[in-house]
Amino acid sequence: MSLESSYPEFRLNQSRYDQATFLGRFRHCLDLIDPRTLLVSEAKLYNSVKLLEDFKNGKLSDGITNKELWEAQKIKQATFHPDTGEKVLMPFRMCGNKIIF
């Protein structure tokens, strides 16, 4: 089984995991609190946002994989406030308060 096959077809603004099951909800929460998202550079962050905008507008480059899209969405969801779209400061992110406190 290849790594790419472990990623389902990308769905914008939806969870990669089945939210009808406890395990799916648990894995989704683990994505949101993953402390590795704190180490993402500004360039990677804004490339992730651009990739998702390109997907939304149907302008996705050839060769972009589901894995890249899911990772971009994970970074965006962990960094930006879902209602305002503003970048959340590191200590106040879901993944940041687990390390700081």
Topology:
Elements lengths: L21 H11 L9 H15 L9 H14 L17 H4 L1
Give a written overview of the molecule.
44% of the residues lie in helices and 0% in strands. The chain is mainly α. Helix 2 packs across helix 3 (66-79). The chain is globular. The model has no long low-confidence stretch (mean pLDDT 87).
- Shape assignment: globular
Helix and strand sequence? HHHH
Radius of gyration: 14 Å
Count of alpha and pi helical runs: 4
Query: Which secondary-structure class do the elements indicate?
Result: mainly alpha
Average of the residue pLDDT scores: 87
Distance between the termini: 39 Å
Summarize this structure as a short list of keywords or feature phrases.
4 helices, mainly alpha, 101 residues, globular
